[in-house]
Structure formats: C-alpha cells, structure tokens
Amino acid sequence: MEFWHGFLLITSVHLLAAASPGPDFVLVSRETLTKGRRTGLICSLGITLGLAVHIIYSVLGLAAVIAHSQPLLTAIKWLGGAYLIYLGWQGIGAKPKQPVEMTTFVNNVNSNSNVTDKTESSFATLRRGFFCNVFNPKAPVYFVAIFTLVLSPDIPLWQLSIYGVWMMVLQMAWFSTVVMLLSIPVILKRFQRFEHWIDRVLGTAMIILGLNLIFRSR
C-alpha cells in the first residue's frame, strides 16, 4: 500500500477509534474534572504509552495470536475488568471537599494551576492511565484489523513504525483536546462544587464498564 494512502487510512480509522466513548475517555474526564488540567494531561500520556505496548506486540505479529486465543483474551478481560472496578471503587469513595480545600481549588483554577491532590504523585496518575489502556481486551482485535485489513502485511518495518508513532500522536492529541476543553475555568468552576459526585458517577460508570467487560460474551 502506498505510504500516504495508508497514512490517511490510519488517521481516519484511529481518530474514530480514539473518539469512541470507553474506559479511557471516562478516566481522562474524571481526572480532569476532579483534579485539573495537568493531571488530565498526565493521565492522557499514560494512555498513550499504553497504546505503545499494543503497537509493539502488533508489529511483532502477536496481536493475531492474542485475538484468536480464547484463554488469553479471557485473562485480559478479567484483568481489565478488575482494574476498571478498582478505579471505579476509588471514585465512589470520594468525599466532599472542605471549605478551605474548595477555596484552594477555585484559586488554582483561576491561576490555571494544577489541582491534583498533593498526596498523589504524577507517576501514580501516569500508571493509572497506562494500565487502563493496556488492559483493554478490545485492543488486540482492533490492531489485528489495523495491521492485517487496513494495511497490507508486507509493509516494511520503518513504515509500520511511522504509522505506530503517528497513532500515538493522534491518541495524545485527542485526549489533550478533551482535557483542554474540560479544564476551561468556567467549566471547572461549575463542576468543582459537585466534584465528589462527579467522582462517584464516573466511578460507577467505570464499575459498570468493568462488570460488562468481565461478564459479556465474546
């Protein structure tokens, strides 16, 4: 397949895939609305790095093996579902901010500062986004389609590498856009009063996604 033809196919297909609602979108939305822009961007970077794992094993030809192995897919489904339930349970346990904390939140929003809980490291946020993406059992099937149907199997490694990096750029660009929109001060000011409810609602959504992932048929 001619390089630019494949490039356009990758761009259109992956943008649609990235924009479709799912665990990654829910997680980034929760992190941004409850902890601020910087946390949302770090979480987005973690998701993008998780995508790199799927790209690497797909280039090595392992995606087809995983996609056609029921035991492997089942194991990934259980791991992914359990992780989503764990993240959701953390959200459900969110408590309302004290008046002093809410004042600090508003001041941080007005100054475009980060509003992340100081007890949580950037690495913890990065790791959360990373594992949320890595444990997505739809990824092997998706990349089988990308690398065997959208693209021809005889594409040289350098071309596959460029496509892979470009998919990561698209992923980061999409979620960065989501973060920037959700972290507009006017939006954050409105949501900050209901931060614990946002955490609880999105946490419940993640638990539902996790349970659906575990119990649905292939």
Structure in words:
There is one protein chain. The protein is mainly alpha-helical and 218 residues long. Helices cover 80% and strands 0% of the residues. The two termini are 32 Å apart. Residues 99-106, 109-113 and 115-119 have low confidence and may be disordered.
Briefly, what is this?
With 218 residues, the protein is mainly alpha-helical.
What percentage of residues falls in helices of 4 or more residues? over 70%
Uncertain stretches of 5 or more adjacent residues:
99-106, 109-113, 115-119
Give the topology string: H per helix, E per strand: HHHHHHHHHHH
Distance between the ends:
32 Å
> Main β-sheet, in a few words?
none
Share of β-strand residues: under 5%
Based on CA atoms alone, the radius of gyration comes out at: 19 Å
Q: Residue-averaged pLDDT, rounded? A: 78
Number of strands: 0
Question: How would you classify the helix and strand content by structural class?
Answer: mainly alpha
Taken from the alpha-carbon principal axes, the silhouette is globular
> Tally the helices: what do you get?
11
Secondary structure topology:
Layout: H1 3-19, H2 23-35, H3 37-59, H4 62-67, H5 70-92, H6 99-110, H7 122-134, H8 138-150, H9 157-182, H10 185-192, H11 195-215
